[in-house]
Each structure stands twice: as C-alpha cells, then as structure tokens.
Amino acid sequence: MKVAVAGCCHGALDKMYETLELLQRRHNVQVDLLLCCGDFQAVRNEADLSCMAVPAKYRHMQTFYRYYSGEKKAPVLTVFVGGNHEASNHLQELPYGGWVAPNIYYLGYAGVVRFRGVRIGGISGIFKSHDYRKGHFEYPPYNQQTIRSAYHVRNIEVFKLKQLKRPIDIFMSHDWPRSIYHYGNKKQLLKMKSFFRQEVESNTLGSPAASELLQHLKPTYWFSAHLHVKFAAFMQHQMDSKEELPKATKFLALDKCLPHRDFLQIIDIEHDPSAGDSLEYDAEWIAVLKATNSLVNVTQSSWNMPEKYGLNAKWDYSVTEEAIEEVLEELNHDLKIPCNFTLTAACYDPSKPQKNMEPIHSINPQTTEFCAHFGLTDINDRIQQAKEEGSVQGKYGEEEEEMDSTGSAEEPSEYSTDNSGLSSINPDEIMLDDEGGDEDLSTCSVDPSPDHPADFSASFSDIRIMPDSMAVSSDDAMDSTNEELEKSGVVKQVEEKILSERLLKRIAVNENGNSSIKKIKRRNQAIYAAEDEDK
Known about the structure:
The protein has 535 residues and is α/β, with parallel strands linked by helices. It has helices spanning 13-27, 46-49, 64-69, 88-92, 129-132, 146-149, 155-161, 186-192, 197-201, 208-217, 283-291, 321-330, 365-374, 379-389, 396-399, 427-430, 481-488, 531-534; strands at residues 2-6, 33-36, 78-80, 98-101, 104-106, 110-115, 118-123, 170-173, 221-224, 231-237, 248-253, 264-268, 279-281, 464-466, 505-509, 515-519.
C-alpha cells in the first residue's frame, strides 16, 4: 500500500493535496493514505485563529475551512497528530481522536488506529517538562499561558502508549525523539541546520518522552516534523528477553508545506490485502483506555504515573488477551470507526468576516458517543464540572510564567531538561509564510518515487544499537557512509543560506539613548518574528 507522509501542513490543505496529486501523476501511483505529522491547523473560523499560539500577523485562515464546511473533500484518507501551532480549541474537542472533517481524522492527544491491517499510533503536541506531569486542565478562551500549555505533551498519554504490547507498524510525533540525530547523517544535518549543533552535541535536541516511546514501542516506521528539515535515520534496537528477532526503526522527518520543499514522501508499506478500506479502531488501544480511565486528571497539579516499586497498589496497566476480546465483543467484531463527523462551530465565511468571534469550550458529539460506548471519561465534560467547582485553570497565569528552554524554576521532573525539540532560534521556523524559493533548507533524501518507495537504505545511513540510556557515543565515524551515497548520486546535497541577521538577541534603546540587549523569548512565546525585524 502506498502511504504519503507530510511534514508541517500549516493549514495549506489545498497546496498539500495538489502536490500529492502531482506526485501521483508524475510517478503513476495511487496513494491510499496520507499521514501528517502536526501543525495541521484545523482552523474553522476566526475564533479558532485566536487559539493558535502565534502572533496575530501570522494568523491566516488558510484552506482547512473549505473541507470543514463540505465545500471540498479530502481526496485521500488523511490521519494527523497535533503540533504546537494548532487551533487547540478545535482539537481539544476530540481528546480521544475523531473526524475534524470528512475523510480527515485526528488521532487525539494520543491514539492508535488500523488501516488495511497496518497499525498506526501517534502522540500530539511537543514536550515541555514543566507541564509534562499536569493534567489536561486548559479550556478556551485561553490565557497567555494556557494557549501554549494546551499543546504540551502529558505523562498520562506516554503512560498509556507504554502499556501496548502488540507491534506498532507506524508511529507519528510532532517533535523528534531525542537522540535520533545520532542514527542518521548528523554531519549533513548540522550543515543544513548549524544552529542545532549545541543541542545535538549536548544531546538535548528533541523530546525525551518521544525517545522513551521509541525505545518501548520499537515501531517499524517513525515519522516526525517540527524542525522544518528533511532527515532520515535508521535505528536498530537492543533485543529484550521476549523478542525472537531484533527490531529496527526507520525514522523520517519531513519539511514544512511550501514550494521547493521536501514536505511529502511516498512510501510502500506492507498491508493485509484481505482487510477493508475503512479506518478502524485498535482493540488493544481501546482496552488500554478503559484500563487507565481512572487515571484521568483535569487539574494543573503535578502528579506521577504509577510505577513499579512505587507507592501505587497497581502500576502495570497493560491489558490481557481477554480484555481485548471483550472490546471486540462490545463492537461485535466490527472495528470500523463510524463516519460521524458533525459541525460544532460556525464555518468561516470570506464574505462576512467576524473578527471579534470568541472561542467557546465545546463538547463534541463524537467524543460523547465514543465515551458512552466504551465507558470512558469525557475529559471536556469533566473540565466543565471542574470549572463549576473552580478547580481548573485557576491562577495559572499568575503562578507560573512560560519557561525558557533551560527549564528554570520548573518543578522536579523525571526529565532533567526542558527542550521542546527546538530551543535554539531556527531561522527556517520563523518564516511560516515564506515561499522558500531562495532558501531550500531540506536535507538529503531519496525522491518520493515508485523507484524508491520503500528503500530506506539510501537515506538511513547510521546504523547503531540504541542503549537503554539513549546516550550515544560521540564517535561520528559512521557519517562517512553517506559520502559514498553522495558520490553515487543517491543523496542530493543542497546548500543552505544561513540567515545570520536573525539574532538570538534584539537591540533595544533605553531612554538615555544607550543601546541595551533584550533577549527574544524562546519558541512558544513568539515563534514567529516579524519580517521587518529580521531585516
């Protein structure tokens, strides 16, 4: 089966689907499934725009609303995870996943589904350690803190995914798993993105939570986005006592959706030819949701997941074959996800703009139906109850300011650092609306074509065993393997024009006429800098 993988979409659905159609015609292939690795921007109206954590000048409606209204329909089944530039109020309606538009499915805070026998999992958002141990307490209208914390990964989602025992074929995250850069052509990555060097060398670039999942799940494929550069890696995992054969993961990160960028790749994935064409629930995942339902938390209090040798009476929430069979019986062995998309907000009308539209906290009928069917807690309903009791959100903005990438003043965490995957200033990340014509920062890769649909060997060059600690030797000798690939023409090297004028600090002039240095706040505070400031 042909699967297309896309990087950050940024709401440009028309552009994404047009590019996909072009690739299909050019290579005479038919794509069966499109996966998007975050920053999808499912913006329905002006209220949704106000819930995106970007400066107002970058809040563009883009084209998702046409698919939401029914004016257009996605030409291929599309499944996505959330990133850090999303209409968080919209995605919050579907914490367990659901349809954001006909033929476009969101995986939720974390989720697992099946398509043609292929098991697809994912986790939404980016990692920030100071929010990692909190519950999902945010609700619209957001304040300056919760508009950011709403998309931060929580430990409960990682805990749920770690209960899975059955193999995962494909996994998606927005930010990269920490240390994955040690398993690809790191030299070429740093040539393309030199401002990553400090974090790569200190092994702090990327999400430690995603790395933990990568170690545990060992999926066949892992796809990410976020850093706006195309990068491939191949990781061979250590065998555990229950495995008969060693497992390996093929990692691929995609660029953002702009002309002249490698933001789409078509890959051949083995599938079950006898399986239907419908998106399906995953029985083990549903069983895990049922088993962990008592752990749902909608407060901003920090808390730890149950752990072995801890104070918890129960720490293992993995499910038995009997529990999985019970789920199958509940569904009468029909795992097809119902096509029950419904409009829950007014759709943008270009002829009647409503600039003062306020976001509201909505409960989506899809979530209500899902929770009722499987006996789960509707997180938004619980938040509504807690709001009435005054026990959520509260004085978050007064008690806690957005932390920078050092994680200063944060509460204790199992992770020692607070990098969301990009704490350095990324010149490429700043210019969301740039056309990319004169600065192609995409890294080496194999063109998506029927000639190389599943041949990752050309892209995944650095094969190493992942240690338990995720620490990797500083020996970069294996980067030389890509030099041979470059000579053979398989790897395409593209020169990057480093935008040196984008500084980490901004010059300000005080009342006395003296210049002073003012730090630009890190990503999530003002991810996009004004173009005139850049110049």
